[in-house]
Specification:
The protein is α+β, with helices and mostly antiparallel strands and about 280 residues long. Helix content is about 30%, strand content about 20%. It has seven helices and ten strands. The relative contact order is 0.21. The N terminus is likely disordered.
């Protein structure tokens, strides 16, 4: 797992510079954690099992029944009490990439230019441009006029000079899917992952899950292990993003004060979004 720094990919808390999601580099992530030691994570203070979880339905029947998001168009996948989660496909025609790309500022264009592959540049531009369009629609400004500032560890937020400082947001992308979570007045974090086999899942779970979460994970049968791993992982990532700290940083003692909602942004993907209670 390569953490992107404040200059910055908005998804740095859940993925590397290529935007693939944290688990795309899971072997590197495991090695990095082994070197630094698991106590750096302060996991006893971020016990996902202690959060308030509201889950509409089991994922078991949803992984192959999710409504498909559309290319380049943000569609709602979850709405509840002011919380919104919108999803879109990032692989779009080049003319759409160019149209969306005009909204990016100079730093974002440099960021895109620094990505090695054309696919990753395209996905970054579409994700960032879509974020700007969504925020602009809520703020009543042009997408090019949306300003972002970043916390000490790189968490993006709207500056006080923007017309609606009370709007909180979080972004995650994995492969060709991106989601944006919006919450008025409450901190929010979101994470999605493509559900693919993770050979190191048990080792990652032992390093990253709380004791109770790890115990419940290991109690699952073989057919439920993959889903169970991603359900716990996306919750843990979403909480770390809501707090504005990466999984490799110590965190405060109030991390249990979250409502967690699970969702399926696209067939074969799982997601979690959290808001402060």
């Amino acid at each position: 797992m390569t953490l992107d720094r404040p200059e910055l990919d908005l998804t740095w808390l859940s993925g590397g510079a290529d935007g693939r999601g944290a688990l795309a580099s899971s072997r590197s992530f495991q090695v990095a954690l082994a070197r630094s030691g698991p106590r750096l994570l302060q996991l006893a203070e971020c016990d996902v099992s202690q959060t308030h979880v509201e889950q509409a339905a089991s994922f078991s029947g949803l992984l192959d029944k999710a409504a498909e998001p559309r290319a380049g168009i943000m569609v709602p996948v979850l709405e509840d009490d002011g919380l919104e989660v919108l999803a879109c496909m990032l692989d779009v025609r080049q003319d759409i990439v160019r149209a969306i790309g005009v909204f990016l500022n100079e730093a974002e264009r440099r960021r895109a230019d620094g990505l090695k592959s054309e696919r990753d540049r395209r996905r970054f531009i579409v994700c960032r441009g879509q974020l700007r369009q969504i925020l602009a629609s809520r703020l009543g400004v042009s997408p090019s006029d949306v300003e972002l500032e970043f916390g000490q560890l790189g968490k993006p937020q709207l500056p006080h000079r923007m017309p609606s400082r009370n709007l909180h947001f979080s972004v995650s992308r994995s492969a060709d899917v991106a989601v944006v979570a919006l919450s008025p007045g409450r901190e929010v974090g979101v994470d999605i992952e493509a559900v693919l086999p993770v050979p190191e899942a048990d080792e990652i779970a032992a390093l990253c899950f709380s004791a109770s979460d790890y115990e419940s994970y290991t109690a699952l049968g073989p057919d439920d292990r993959l889903e169970g791993f991603f359900r716990r992982w996306t919750r843990l990532e979403a909480i770390s993003k809501g707090l504005g700290c990466g999984l490799g940083y110590p965190s405060s003692s109030d991390e249990k004060d979250w409502v967690v909602r699970s969702f399926v942004p696209k067939t074969g993907y799982l997601g979690s979004v959290v808001v402060r209670k």
